[in-house]
Design brief:
With about 160 residues, this protein is of the alpha/beta class. It is built from 4 helices and 6 strands. Strand 5 and strand 6 form a beta hairpin. Helix 2 crosses helix 4.
Length: about 160
């Protein structure tokens, strides 16, 4: 009897820790709606496109909708993007240097917060434009490829957090 009680207590504590870890890695579990806050540009010198903050915010909204999470004006969970880098790349670098130089890039963090602003989760997302035929692609094509890859990666991260 003396060993059963400590063993049961240890098992109970272990299950509690496992449950807390599961909740921290799945902050969107059971969430039906999320408030999307404006994009934060962390490094303005690395964001070459003026429309980039709105573009990544729209991609976040699209990814949440695709994951069957509604966008609300007020919700217990808030999400936003911290944009570190957004470039269309360089056609000249892609053509002259090759080897992946000059490709478009999107680097950011998806941040989830509770209603009080406490950070629940932060995930880094980094994508680059396609290498296939890249020396011959214009910057708009490269940017579209990076944004499409970004939106897919964003959706994968959101699904992982459910």
């Amino acid at each position: 009897m003396k060993t059963i009680i400590p063993a049961a207590l240890a098992l109970f504590l272990a299950l509690m820790v496992c449950d807390m870890n599961a909740q921290s890695t799945a902050p969107l579990r059971g969430v039906k709606a999320v408030q999307v806050d404006p994009t934060v540009v962390a490094k303005p010198d690395k964001v070459k496109e003026p429309s980039a903050p709105n573009l990544v915010q729209d991609s976040l909204k699209n990814a949440l909708r695709t994951a069957n999470i509604d966008i609300a004006d007020s919700a217990p969970i808030r999400a936003h993007i911290v944009l570190d880098e957004f470039t269309s790349g360089s056609t000249a670098k892609r053509f002259l240097v090759g080897f992946g130089a000059g490709r478009s890039t999107v680097t950011c963090h998806l941040v989830l917060q509770d209603a009080d602003g406490k950070e629940l989760h932060s995930t880094k997302i980094h994508v680059r434009g396609n290498l296939v035929w890249s020396p011959y692609q214009g910057n708009n094509t490269q940017r579209r490829q990076a944004v499409t890859s970004y939106e897919q990666k964003l959706l994968e991260e959101i699904e992982r957090m459910k």
